[in-house]
Amino acid sequence: MPNLGQQISSKNDMIPDWTSQEVSTGVSTGAAGPWRTEAYIANRVTDKLTPIHDRIFCCRSGSAADTQAIADVVTYQLGFHSIELDEPPLVETAANLFRASCYRYREELTAGILVAGWDRRKGGQVYCVPIGGMLVRQPVSVGGSGSTYIYGFMDSNYKPGLTKEQCLELTAAALSLAMERDGSSGGVVRLATISEDGVERRVILGNQLPKFSTH
Amino acid sequence: MALSNVLETPAAGFNFDNAARNTALEGLFDGGQTPKPLKTGTTIAGVVFKDGVVLGADTRATSSEVVADKMCAKIHYISPNMYCCGAGTAADTEKTTELLSSNLTIFSLNSGRNPRVIMAVNILQDMLYRYHGQIGASLILGGVDCTGNHLYTVGPYGSVNKVPYLAMGSGDLAALAILEDGFKPNLELETAKELVRSSIHAGIMSDLGSGNNIDICVITREGVDYIRPYQESQFKDNRKMKYKYHPGSTAVLTEKVVPLKLEVVQEAVQQMDTA
């Protein structure tokens, strides 16, 4: 079905999941900037990292309208669930809620989502819910149209046991490389670090990104 | 909870019923041309400035190549503190904003509070997403409420963007070029009005679907200043508007009188009670 709405297919992001003695377990997620309506950039500073709960975020790629709608639905469901239980929700629960919506309406939706967060049971976790509605937990994940350019980079550079700073550097580098090559990615890089202590958000502007190209 | 809103919150989950109905309707035309809705080629723009929000729009409504309305109002009233510019299908933007306005009025009356811009955005997003792009309305919603000055755009598929300056419609590229160049945070009123005016002007000059006059709407805490028109087109034609011809201008060639035979079928007299 031709999708003429706003696309955020530009998005690519990666989420390493790490445990280390120095840094409490957590997750850092990153996402790149602009939204695309065919050849027109509707918003060059979009925020594709959407908070679902206090310590759970999601990265959205695909149709802007679809992912915003799904994220709103899941935020509501998760909030309700958390109040019922009177305790913070599990990241796996959030991921399952996303999967439930994405799989049931798979014919009508175009949404690729990465769910990431921290909970007391399993610490930092990353779940991938791509188009079609699969659910899988991964230590590192990338998504969006620009992700194809950085699979090799991620495979070779990610190691379990990285510190928070190393993870953030790795994420920023990966996103810069993807933004360099993918026409639908660009603008700014937004990073979020989620851990037991809370969420720390950062923005890296276009001119501050690490530079790789020599030509 | 349901009382606050005439629009009933539909059952949970996504509802794509109307998409099926639309494909069925297309089948009726059997490969022929489905009727084309009237689109307003448009330039609309909005800017957040120090004390509020400035919205601007052109006033041309086109029906294919003909200008259907030279003084069309594209800045729609939502509530005393919110106005909405609409681009896309004229009927859709008109009705969507009217529906939104009614809902928010009912909410205000029920709760005694002024509606917030984010409420309007949520209602619009909800409705447009449910219709899956079949309602062709691209809206720029601007307003001032207790949380500050806000400018949002809602696309026809239900995507929302919150931005400090914005242009939509067929003339948006030209308008956005001017806005990108001239926008700074915390502008003064006159600078903001001039920036919006020149961006709409750029849209009018560069896009066939936009034209005629420029409307500006300034929304601040103190109130709303709806200036219509803010700038009139220099190309105005002189129309008499009264086309009355004196008797005898057209020659009578033949005349034929046919009396209508009326029979009285029934006659009844009823006295009127007068006191």
From TrEMBL, chain A:
Its quaternary structure?
The 26S proteasome consists of a 20S proteasome core and two 19S regulatory subunits. The 20S proteasome core is composed of 28 subunits that are arranged in four stacked rings, resulting in a barrel-shaped structure. The two end rings are each formed by seven alpha subunits, and the two central rings are each formed by seven beta subunits. The catalytic chamber with the active sites is on the inside of the barrel. Component of the immunoproteasome, where it displaces the equivalent housekeeping subunit PSMB6.
- Signal peptide (residue range): none
Pfam families, sorted:
Proteasome
**Species of provenance:** Amphiprion percula
> One MF term from GO for this chain?
threonine-type endopeptidase activity
Q: What does this protein do?
A: The proteasome is a multicatalytic proteinase complex which is characterized by its ability to cleave peptides with Arg, Phe, Tyr, Leu, and Glu adjacent to the leaving group at neutral or slightly basic pH. The proteasome has an ATP-dependent proteolytic activity. This subunit is involved in antigen processing to generate class I binding peptides.
Gene3D superfamilies assigned to the protein according to its UniProt record, in alphabetical order? Glutamine Phosphoribosylpyrophosphate, subunit 1, domain 1
Enzymatic class:
hydrolase
GO cellular component term, pick one: cytoplasm
Q: Where in the cell is it found?
A: Nucleus
Reaction equation(s) it catalyzes: Cleavage of peptide bonds with very broad specificity
Q: Which residues form a coiled coil?
A: none
Its GO biological process annotations read: immune system process; proteolysis involved in protein catabolic process
User: Where does the protein principally reside?
Assistant: nucleus
Official protein name in the record: Proteasome subunit beta type-9
Q: What is its EC number?
A: 3.4.25.1
Q: Which PANTHER family match?
A: METALLOPROTEASE TLDD, PROTEASOME SUBUNIT BETA
Q: What is the lineage of its organism?
A: Eukaryota, Metazoa, Chordata, Craniata, Vertebrata
Key words of the record? Cytoplasm, Hydrolase, Immunity, Nucleus, Protease, Proteasome, Threonine protease, Zymogen
UniProtKB/TrEMBL annotation, chain B:
Write down the PROSITE patterns for this protein, in alphabetical order.
PROTEASOME_BETA_1 (PS00854), PROTEASOME_BETA_2 (PS51476)
> What is annotated about its quaternary structure and interactions?
Component of the proteasome complex.
GO terms in the biological process aspect are: proteolysis involved in protein catabolic process
Q: What does the record give under GO molecular function? A: threonine-type endopeptidase activity
* Organism in which the protein naturally occurs: Amphiprion percula
InterPro entries attached to this UniProt entry = Ntn_hydrolases_N (IPR029055), Pept_T1A_subB (IPR000243), Proteasome_bsu_C (IPR024689), Proteasome_bsu_CS (IPR016050), Proteasome_sua/b (IPR001353), Proteasome_suB-type (IPR023333)
- Where in this chain does the record put each Proteasome beta subunit C-terminal domain? 239-269
* Name of this chain's protein: Proteasome subunit beta
Say what the protein does: The proteasome is a multicatalytic proteinase complex which is characterized by its ability to cleave peptides with Arg, Phe, Tyr, Leu, and Glu adjacent to the leaving group at neutral or slightly basic pH. The proteasome has an ATP-dependent proteolytic activity. This subunit is involved in antigen processing to generate class I binding peptides. Component of the proteasome, a multicatalytic proteinase complex which is characterized by its ability to cleave peptides with Arg, Phe, Tyr, Leu, and Glu adjacent to the leaving group at neutral or slightly basic pH. The proteasome has an ATP-dependent proteolytic activity.
